[in-house]
Amino acid sequence: MCISAWLVSRYNAHHNFNSLSMRDRVRYTLFASLWTIVGSIFFILLFLHSATGSVMTSVAAHLIFLVLTWIIWVAAAASVTAMIGGGLNCSTQNTFVYCGQLNALEAFSWIIWILVTFALIVVIIRGIAAARRGDGYRGGLVA
After folding, report:
1. What is the pTM for the complete model shown?
2. Phi and psi dihedrals of 140, rounded to 5?
3. Segments of 29-140 assigned E as strands
């Protein structure tokens, strides 16, 4: 979130983005970061309140949140990758003002997408376990 927030603040202050598309893609990555942080905090608080007794802590609720998060992050990572052409060599280019930060934004976008993918796989495995024990997908993430 810090890199995208810093880039958004720089673009807002100096208007030195190459195109409106560049500005909007960085803003979308900031949205993806905030979506993930706020949603994760929400689920952590619900999980601390009642790990097994709530529909909001069920396997289905986690699956819905993680699938949406996965889609949001793959779109963010792909849009940043397309924006900078798959990575920048900062020593040879002079088109992008914040070359290193844009490279880092691309890298962290893909890393977060991979982490969300792993979390989604874990929730699917836990969902299969919940279905086998008879709780279904409305059952808790933990036994």
Report:
1. 0.88
2. -70, 160
3. none
